[in-house]
Amino acid sequence: MLKEELLKRLDKVRFTRAKKLGYKTPDDILRSNENPLYSEGISIIIPTYKGQDVIKGCLESLARQTLNQSLFEVIIVINGEKDNTEEVIKDFAETNKMTNIKIIVMDEAGASVARNKGISLASRQYCTFVDDDDYLSENFLEEMYRLSDLNTIVISQIHNVEVDGKIQSSNPLNRQILKSVISRQHPYNKLNMVLTINACKLIPTMSLQQFRFDETLRSGEDVAFFTDLVIKNDFKYVVAPIAKKVIYYRVLRDNSVSRQKMTFDFNVVQRADVIGKLNELLSVDELAPVKRGFIERKILAQSSFIKKYYEEHQNQYGEIMEELTLRYFTYFPYHLLNEKRVERLVISYCFPPYNDTSGNVMAKRMREASKVSDVIYNTMDSARSKSYTLNKMVDDLINSRMPINSPTSFSNWRDIKAFIEMGMQEIEEKVKGRGAYKEVVSRALWPASHFLAYQYKRQYPESRWIAEFSDPLLFDIEAKKRQVDIADNQYIKSLETSVKKEGMPAGNTDNLFFWCEYLPYVFADELIFTNKHQLKYMMDVFPINEVKEIIKKKAIIAPHPTLPERYYHLEEVDYPLISDDHVNLAYFGNFYSKRNLNDIFEGLKLTGDNVRQRILVHVFTSKPQELEYSLKGDLLEDNIIVNGYVDFYKFLNLCTQFDCLIVNDSTTLDNKDINPYLPSKLSDYSGSGSEIWGIYEEGSILSESDHVEYLTPLNDFKAAAEVYTQLMNKKFKH
Predict the structure, then answer these.
(1) Alpha-carbon torsion angle 255, 258, 260, 262, nearest 10
(2) Radius of gyration of the chain (CA)
(3) pLDDT, mean of residues 620-634
């Protein structure tokens, strides 16, 4: 995706410039070599604001360059309030016969504005930036040009010049440049600071002209600009030979970023502005890890200014966090602020950025609790896709993430055991530093979460364990007993011994799903069930009667949380298929034998033509082709609009756009006495502001919901038809 976009932008740059040179079509460029797009040599871009007292030193260094003047142009952009800078430059150019100096005068102030103007005017193959009070070694242009190539950025040394004129060759930037010559690391790592400053680089002009400095940023614009440039190009990076002493001399100023006075505006607001721009580059989920890591290091560097401010103004934690969280960063190192505020350990085998409903629910639980936590989860790359934007839901409440690189499995004991052992190693390192957590919270659809939480609780009994069940585990949706053996006799014996010490029966089974329920029942301090039927069903079918009174005492009923309204507008979706001339209903989710679309479709068929022609049902599913095929030639083919799966925040935003959202129960009464399930998307629907139609199984939790405007029983197609009629009459006031 990035490469395709880049090629399009590259073509735009190439053809725009070609038109200026007289070419009319792309073929003209290919047929002619007489008038190349760029002249040979280097364009030097110098922005200056009230530079009359400093720019002469810069110009003198350009006049002394060993590169022939015919091979470089000097583009000086004077902007903002005027002084005598223009006269100083003209006098210097005339005295030194430098006919290659171009002066552009702009009323608009700002270094970014000036640099953008200079970039747009560059006519040579390569560009370099020089600040008006900095200067270059005499061989700078010649040596840099000698190493130039159209896919290469050439880097010089950089020496600091102190206010008293003393030259400091040993500075962090230059040490990084010197070390890079012998380092085998990726350039994003060994040159991470150098790559995102304006100075000491020679850059291919065609690549440079694809990008612009962000003129809204008041500082840090070079970091945002160059991160964008280097991430979206696969440049080679060459350092000029150290022995050649190719040097950019950077004059340190009292108003430089490193010497800025500490203020909330500079340290927090302006840094957050830059971090926001860097986060935009992280929104591409398929971004190469080395590039993602580079961007995150840039964010970390900017965040260090925020941390420094926080350390001296800890009473402003709330204001700082508000400034950050309302920007909904995909990535921010909140541990810099949260280290001393950790209250709990969260164990969620699947967790954002992995796309998984159970992981999202845990993140919503954390949002609801608003407690700073360390989070431990498994790397799920083999089973789930990633969406880094999911981190926005909860990252500000996380101090440390501890991803465990164990094989992903729902029920393979060997893989779960690996997760437990590796997870405990990570946890023990944390506990060594700060002591046991006040609370440990685990949530199981994935059984490994509770097994690791149990192991932690046994080792640190002073921590309060809160265990949540997403769904019944011992019995599946068809009431069939799940049976997977824990192939570890020694472990089973240890479990039996531990429950006996608590006065409970041993269990006499090595079934993983039995123990995944039994251990929290016995050892957790609080048990969370999403609805009262789930609690009743799980107690009724559990084979150890002695534990049931304990379950009742510990049980808390907590429906799935609903995110605040602002999350429904993080990603605005332009969905053009909603029609003002129709009632627009939406169904999100998959369909199968226990949860299907029969009521939706058969009910619509029972309506008259006058109703049906006013109804559109928009289905968003991971099986769009299957549904489209089944609708071919059907009476409802024009009424059902089939869409593919959408990401979580797009789903939330789409929920706000429809007249009515449809949620339906799973069919369970053919094999269960009570329906223990409540669709988690009901909690997402309820925050959307749209009306909700619930298609319920008799006696289910959905049938009692206060969030649902329309309720019809499963398989009552006539009742479903009446809902369509009500919706049409309401919208069109028939």
Answers:
(1) 180
(2) 32
(3) 91
* Confidence at 3, pLDDT banded by 50, 70, 90: very low
Q: List the beta bridge partners of residue 251.
A: 161
Average pLDDT over residues 578-598: 88
**Do 172 and 217 belong together in one domain?**
yes
Rounded CA-CA distance 123/211 in Å is 16
3-state secondary structure of 247: strand
DSSP string, 601-655: HHHHHHS-HHHHTTEEEEEE-S-HHHHHHHHTT-TTTTTEEEE----HHHHHHHH
Last residue of a domain, one of 325, 357, 375: 325
Which residues form the domain of 518?
Answer: 338-557
152, part of any domain: yes
The last residue of one of the domains, among 228, 256, 284, is 256
Asked if 75 and 44 count as a contact pair (C-beta separation under 8 A), the reply is yes
Whether 31 is covered by a domain: the verdict is no
Clarify whether residues 590 and 667 are in a common domain: yes
272 and 342 share a domain?
no
DSSP alpha helix (H) spans, 381-470? 413-434, 448-459
CA gap 24, 490 in Å, rounded: 80
Q: What CATH number is given to the structural domain containing 434?
A: 3.40.50.2000
Decide if 3 is inside a domain.
no
pLDDT tens digits, one per residue of 99-155? 999 999 999 989 999 999 999 999 999 999 999 999 999 999 999 999 999 999 999
Cα 438 off chain centre by: 29
CA distance 542 to 527: 15
Tens digits of residue pLDDT in 69-97: 999 999 999 998 889 999 999 999 999 99
Backbone φ and ψ of 551, nearest 5°: -60, -45
Whether residues 142 and 280 share a domain: the answer is no
Q: CA 484 from chain center: how many Å?
A: 36
The rounded distance, in Å, linking the Cα atoms of 323 and 336 is 15
Contacts 24+ apart (CB under 8 A), 472-475: 472/534, 472/537, 472/538, 472/541, 472/676, 473/444, 473/447, 473/513, 473/516, 473/517, 474/511, 474/513, 474/514, 474/516, 474/517, 474/538, 474/541, 474/542, 475/541
* Number of neighbouring beta carbons within 10 Å of residue 672: 21
Considering the chain, what is the average pLDDT of its residues? 92
pLDDT over 70 percentage in the chain: 94
Q: How far apart are CA 642 and CA 587, in angstroms?
A: 10
Burial of 429 (0-12, 13-18, 19+ CB in 10 A): exposed
The verdict on pTM exceeding 0.90 is: no
Q: Is 547 within 8 Å of 584 (Cβ atoms)?
A: no
Question: Same structural domain for residues 133 and 241?
Answer: yes
CA neighbor of 210 nearest in space, from 73, 10, 384:
10
Does residue 331 sit within a domain? no
- Distance (Å, rounded) from C-alpha 402 to C-alpha 609? 57
